[in-house]
Amino acid sequence: MPRDIDALTSFTLKHLRDRWWDASFTAFLQEALLPQAGERVLDVGCGAGTAELILSALQPGGVHFVGIDVARERLRDARRAMREQGVAAELAAADAARLPFAAEVFDAAFAIAVLQHVATPQAVIDDLRRVLRPGGRLVLAEPDNAARYWFSDPASGHEVFAHATEFYSLVEEAAREDADPSIGPRVPRLLRAAGFEIAAVHLVPVSLTRVGAPVPRVWDERRAAIAAAVDAVRGTLAEESGRALVKAFDRYAREGDEAGPGFLELQNTMLVVTIAQRRPDAPPPAPAERASRPAGTASGPGGRKPGRRG
C-alpha cells in the first residue's frame, strides 16, 4: 500500500488512481462504464494516463478515450507513456468545472478521487451532465477521509496518529479553501440534484496493515514525507503542530523497532464509488437541492456487479 494513503504522511487519499488501481478495480470500472465500439469516454483528472493505458488494452477497437487534467506535467508523462505503448487517446489541460467540449458529446465519463480537491464539486458534476449524452454513464469514486480507523501496538502510534490528524487538518484547511476531503458519501445526493439517476453505490475499503517491525526503509520514507510536509509550512500556524508530529513519530519509530515481531499497525478508510446515468429529461439543477445532505449507500464492488444499463 503506498505511502500516499498513510495517515501519518497524508490527510487525503492522494494519487489514488496511479498507485492503488488494481485488476479488480479495472474490471469493476469496465462493467460500470460498459464502453462499446464507437463510443467516446471522458476521464476527468486523468493524471499520468493510468486508466487510458489499462482500458485501451482491454476494450474493443473503436472506443475513443479522452482525458483531461489541470497538471500539464502529468499530461506530458501520460503522452510519453502512451507513445511508448502505442495507445491512442486524446489528452487536454482543462479545468473539470469548465470542460472544453460541446454539449452531449460523450457516452460515458469517470473521475477517480477528483472532487475531494475541488472547491465547487457541484459545478464539476453539472458540467459532466452537460457533456454527457442522455443516458450517458458516469462513475465517480471519492473517499471519506474523515472515516479513518487506526490501531497500533506500541500505543505511541495512537499519539502520532492524533498529531498527524491535527497537523494535516491545519495544512488542508489553509490550502484547500472550501474543498471537502470527505465528499464521498455526499456524491449521490449531488448527482441527483444535477439530474442523474443513481444506478448503484459501492463502498470500497482501503486498508494498510503492518505486522512485525517495519524495515528501516519504511520508517525513513515516512520520516522524509513528514519532514517535507513540515518544511512546507514553516512560518505558518501549522508549524508548531508539525514539530510535535515529528517528535511523536520519532518516538513511535523507536518503540516500533523495539517491539520487533510484536509490532502491529492497522489503518482503514473508505472509498465511495457512485454509478449514475444522465436522465434524458433532467431539469436544470436547483440551488436548494445542491445544499442537501446524502442518502445511504449500498455494498461494495467486491459483491454484486452493476447490471447492464442502456
Which features would summarize this protein structure in a list?
alpha/beta, disordered C terminus, about 300 residues, 7-stranded mixed sheet
**Overall average pLDDT:** 83
Q: How are helices and strands ordered from N to C? A: HHEHEHEEHEHHEHHEH
Distance between the termini: 36 Å
Q: What is the general shape?
A: elongated
How would you describe what is shown here?
The protein has 310 residues and is an alpha/beta fold. It is 38% helix and 24% strand. The protein contains ten helices and seven strands. The protein has a seven-stranded mixed β-sheet with strand order 3-2-1-4-5-7-6, with helices on both faces. β2, α4 (72-85) and β3 form a beta-alpha-beta unit. It starts with 15 loop residues before the first helix and ends in a 20-residue tail after the last helix.
In short:
The protein has 310 residues and is an alpha/beta fold. It is built from ten helices and seven strands.
Helix/strand layout:
Elements: H1 16-19, H2 23-33, E1 40-44, H3 50-58, E2 64-69, H4 72-85, E3 90-93, E4 106-112, H5 121-131, E5 132-153, H6 156-175, H7 187-194, E6 196-211, H8 216-231, H9 239-259, E7 264-278, H10 287-290
Parallel strand pairs: 1-2, 1-4, 2-3, 4-5
Antiparallel strand pairs: 5-7, 6-7
Helix pairs in contact: 6-9, 8-9
